[in-house]
Amino acid sequence: MKTVTKPQAELNRGSDSVQRLVRKLHRLQKEWPTGVWLFADGSTLSLMRTENGQRMMNSAGCVDPKYTIESFRIPNDGGDW
Hints:
By secondary structure, the chain is α+β, with helices and mostly antiparallel strands. Helices cover 30% and strands 21% of the residues. It has helices at residues 6-13, 16-31, and strands spanning 36-41, 44-49, 68-72. The protein has a three-stranded antiparallel beta sheet with strand order 1-2-3, with no helix packed on it. Strand 1 and strand 2 (44-49) form a beta hairpin.
């Protein structure tokens, strides 16, 4: 994962609404329960459950949609830096 310097991160935060969102995401990170993970697929961010601590895949080797808890239309990109 690419590391963003503190001064750069502060510039990127910008508006009050973005700063509030950053604080919410930090709280969410601290409270994250075991047994779930986020899957980014196109314009959808899906909350997925694990089975025995593992991310479940289908027979084609793709993430198994049967393990979707809820999906959200939040802009995202599942790519690496």
